[in-house]
Amino acid sequence: MSRGKCESVERAQEQASTGGPDQPARRPGETGTALELLVHGVGGTTPQEMLDDPRTVRITGDGIAAVFRRADDVDAETSPDDRRRDGPVPEAYVWCNLTSGNGTRALWLLLLPFMVVNLAHWMRPHARGRRRTVRLYGLLVRLAGLTLTVLLVAAACEVALDLAAWQCAGTRACADRHSWLGFLSPTVSDGGWWSSPGRRLALASFVPTALTGLLWYLSRRTWSDYESQQPPARDPEPDEAGDGPTALGRPGFWYGRRLVARLRAAHTAAGLLTVAAAVASAAARHDREPGGPATLNTLGLLLEAALAACAVAVVWVVCRRGRSERRLDRELDERFVRRLPLAALVLLALALLYAGWERPGWESAGRLPGDATFGGLALAQGLLVIVLAGVAHALHRTDPDRRAVLRGLGGPAVAMLACALGGVMSGGVSQRVSDWLDGTGTSIDGPPVLLTWQASVIPPLIVVLLVLFGWLAHRAWQLARAEREAVARDYPDEAQDRARTRRIAYTRAMASLTDRGPRVVAVTSGVTLLLGAAALVGALATDETPGEAAQGTYPFVHGAAETAEALGSWLIGLGFILFVTWGRRAYKDAAARRTIGILWDVGTFWPRAAHPFAPPCYAERAVPDLTWRIATWTRVTGGRLVISGHSQGSVLAAAAAWQLAPSTRRRVALLTYGSPLERLYGRWFPAHFGPAALSSLHREVDCWRNLYRLTDPIGGPVRLPGNHDLGVDHVPLQDPLSYGRNDLHPLPAPILGHSDYQADPVFAEERRKLLARLRPGLPAPRHTAEQPCPGPEAEPGAEAGPGPQSSSGRSSA
C-alpha cells in the first residue's frame, strides 16, 4: 500500500475518534462500522482468497505477517456509503510466513527433539495452590532439555573425534580407504605434525564446535525476530483479577526475551564444555598413566576441575526460576548471557592447546575415552522422566480433569519421546558413519556399545508400532460400519447410495482417530522406556554389541540380534532422508503441509521455555500483532468486532482475546470453526486451555460461537462444563452439504472435512447473529444458561445442550 493510502487510513481513524488519545473514544452507538478479523489456520492462504477479492491492500504489517483489506474497504470507517454497514468489513491477518518459507527451513525438523521436550513443559496438569510443585515440573523439563543438547553435541563429537580422528585416522587400513584423512594418519603422513592424537582431536573438534555455534546463531537470530517483539503494555483495570485461570492472559506470557537469552547462554556453554571435555579427557588419561609428564598431569587436573565448575554454573543457570509472566520483563542477565559462553569458549581453547601439546609415544587405540557419557545421559534422562511423571501425577490429583490426556501424564510421556528421538538419532548417525568409514567391519571398533544397542531397538519398536497401527485400522473399520446408520439418519429424505454412505462414514471414522492419539503416545512412550532400559542394561552388562553378546546362544537369537543391529542402522539413515524430504515437501506443497502442519504448528505455537534451540515460537509475534490490532481499532473507532478464526487461527484468536483488557474483551465476539481449542489444546495442555480457562473466555467475551463437523480430524466442540455449552457449540454441521444431486447442488457436493467452513450457510448465519448482538444501541444482555449466546434469533430448542453421542464416540454438540 502506498504511503498516501496509509496516511489516509490514519487520518480516517483519527477522525473517527473523539479528539485524541487522552479523550474517550466514540461509543459503539456512534459508529456503524463492524469489523470481521479473519485469522487463517494451518498451511496458510493468500489475502485474496481470504477476502474473496483479487484487489487487496496491506493496512499494516510487513512481509512476514500483515493485515489486509479489500481495496474498496480501506476507508470504510469514514465512508458515507451506508451500504457498507449492512455487513462487516472483512480484514485478513496473514501469518503463514511465520511458519513457512524456503525449503531450507525443513532442516529445522532435525531439531525435533528440542521442540518435543519444549512441548512437554506446557503439558503440565492444572493445579491449585502448588506453586513449588509447578516450578519443580518446569525445572525437570529444563534439565531434560539440557541433556538433549549435551547428547546432540556428544554425538557430533563421537562422529568427528572418535570415529574419524581417533579410530579411522589412527588405523592404517581405514585411513587408506579415505584419502581425505591421510594427513591425520601417522603412517600415511609419515608422522606429520597433525598426526599426533591430541592434534587430530583438536582439529576434529571444529565440527561439534561449529554445530554449537550454528545452533547459537539460529537461536540468537530468531530470538531477535520473535522473542524481542514486545507486546502492548497497559495498566491493569480496577476490576481485573491479578491471576486469571490461564497464564495466557498475563502481560509477560508472550515475551520470553530474558528466559530464552539465559537458556541460550547456558546451552551454548554446555555444548562447548562437552567438546572441551571430549578433547581434554583423552589427553588427561594419557598424562595420568605411570611415567606421564607431571606438569601436564597437573594442568590436566586443573583443566578438568575448571570444566566441572563451569558445568555446575551451567546447571545452576538452568535451574534458576524460569519465566516472568506477570509483568513485561525487559531486563537481560548480562553476566550470564555474555560471560558464561565466553568462559566456556576460553576453556575450550585451553583444552585444545592442552591436547595439542607434544607427547612422544602417544598413540590412539580402541575407542575414545568417554563411552560412559552416553550411558550416563541415558540414565539421567530416564530418571528425570520417572520423577517428572511422579510430579505430574501429584499435580493432577490436586484438580483432576477427566479430559486431560493420560490422567495428566501427557507431559512425561512426550518428554520420554523427546529423549528417545535424541537417543535414536544419535545412535543411528554414529552407526551409519561407522559403517561408512569401516567398509570391512573389522578395522575400527566402531561407536560406543550403548549407541549400537539403541539403534538395535528400533526394529522391535517398529513392530510394536505396526501392531498399534493395525489396531487403529481395525478400530476405524468398526467405527465406519457403525457410522453408516448415523449417516442414513442425517440424510433421511435422500435415496441412499451405499458407496456414498460408506465414503462419508469412513471419513467420520478416520476423523475420530485423532481422539485416540493419547493411546498411541502412551504405548509408544512406555515401550520406548522399557526398550531403552533394556538397551542400557545390555550395554553395561556385556560391554559388547548385540551381535557379539548373542554369540554362543541359540542361532535364532544370534541372527535376530545381528539383524536388528544392521537393520536399525539402515532404518535411521533412511529415516533421515525421508525426514528432510518430507519436511521440504511440507513447506512447498500446501496439501502435504496441511497433513502434518497441525503437529508442527502446535509445537511451534508455544514459547521456548524449556529449550532455546527449538524452532521459534511464531505466536510471540502473531498474538501481539492481533492484540495490537484489536485494541487500537476498537479504541479508535468504537466499532463492533468479530474475531473469526479457523483451525490454528482460532487458538491465536483465543490467546489474543486473553491478552486484551477486560473492557475491550467485552466488546469482542469470537467465531471459531474447525477449532482444536478443546480437542487438542484443552486435552494436551490442561493448565492453559483446560475447562476453567475456556469457561472464563466464554464469560468474558461478549459472545462465542463454535462450528465443527464430524468429518473434521482437527476441529471439534469446545465442551464447556455445565450448561455453558448451550451458547458456544453449534450442532455439528452437515458434511457434505448435500447427500446427492438436487436443485441447489446439481453436481456432487464434496466432503469438506477441515476446510471451507465459509461454504456452509450456517457460517454466514452465525456471523450475522454475532454482529446483530454487537449492533449499536443498548448493550445486549449477557448470555446465560437460559439464553443462548446469539440472542433471541437463535432457533428455539435447536441447542438445548449437548446432543446424543454419535457412534464414533464424539459428541454431536
UniProtKB/TrEMBL annotation:
Chain segments annotated as transmembrane: 136-156, 201-218, 265-284, 296-319, 340-357, 377-396, 408-430, 450-472, 520-541, 567-584
Keywords from the UniProt entry: Membrane, Transmembrane, Transmembrane helix
Residue span of region Disordered: 1-32, 227-246, 773-813
This protein's record includes keyword Transmembrane: yes
Membrane listed as a keyword: yes
Residue ranges, compositional bias (Basic and acidic residues): 1-13
Domain of life of the organism encoding this protein: Bacteria
InterPro entries: AB_hydrolase_fold
Record-given protein name: Chromate transport protein ChrA
